[in-house]
UniProtKB/TrEMBL annotation:
Protein's UniProt keywords contain Ribonucleoprotein: no
Protein name according to UniProt: LacI family transcriptional regulator
Ribosomal protein recorded as keyword: no
InterPro entries, alphabetized: HTH_LacI, Lambda_DNA-bd_dom_sf, Peripla_BP_I, SBP_2_dom
Pfam families per the UniProt record, alphabetical: LacI, Peripla_BP_4
Organism: Adhaeribacter aerolatus
Amino acid sequence: MYKPTTIKDIAKALGLSTSTVSRALRDSYEISEDTKRLVMDYAEKINYKPNPIALSLKERRSYSIGVIVCEVANSFFSQAINGIESVAYKKGYHVIISQSHDSYEREVINVQHLANRSVDGLLVSMSAETTDTSHLKQLHEQGLPLVFFDRVIEGIKTHKVTANNKKGAFEATALLIKEGHTKIAHLANAPHLSITPERLEGYKAALQAHNLPFNEDYVQYCHHGGMIYEEVEEAVRRILQMPDKPDAIFVASDRLSTGCLTALKKFNPGNMQEIAIAGFSNSDVINLLQPSISYVRQPAYEMGQIATEMLIELIESNKPIREFSNVVLNTQLFPHDAPPVLKVSG
């Protein structure tokens, strides 16, 4: 009768403890590279296949990570999830993905569901509607490891991974100014999202650097992050009907960019070229949009990788971690006449 090889068998053969073998197989930072190589080579030699149920029962872990994002169809988040999975699966963890659709209620339900499924930790990017974060604070206080990425909150002391939103916004706005535009509106996300004031700050800094006045009326907020098209349409309509109509728009996100173009085609069909657009976007088809737009691309894949490595470090630590990192990654600006970006991910 076939009897599968266990971690105990590997430990006995190599003269190691079962806990050392278990951590080495998960590529834990606690185990030396030489020991990892010894264990991995032997496991491959005997064609060892781990038993996830036995592992979870022994160590009281589910070896699963919950991920909460606003929308998987969003190019930025799909790329971030690819980065998350590339690290998680290599280290023996499964990934459970949940979408909030930028709804506070959906986010709360998803967080509770994942916690009830005994995930070992959560990777979270906040929804546009969320102002009350007590559902996350409570889990954090109870000891569930959390790491935030892209849309973060300051009220919870843990690791955070973001892009340099101020720099990206500055460069996009400065490009519009360099092209000769002097009346630049800003189509922004919900005011309370962490990315919103950072991108607004970069927009204002670019205006100041080029001696252009800041017009508060030019800033139009979309409180649902572009999930409700009518809200974006109304914001664009207000921009177009201003007495001193803007000649360019800096747009804060992917979904807002596509919504903005759709609204412009509705309200300004014969003069699409008279308003230039620059904004944040990780879409792989951004260069196909008409009119073409300049865009700021975030390192979504790397953001997902780093956030996952940080979360697994929290999960596997044998002692409380008191020092946390706030990692800020650089963005890249692509002018509207730049060649298409090649998608590179693991």
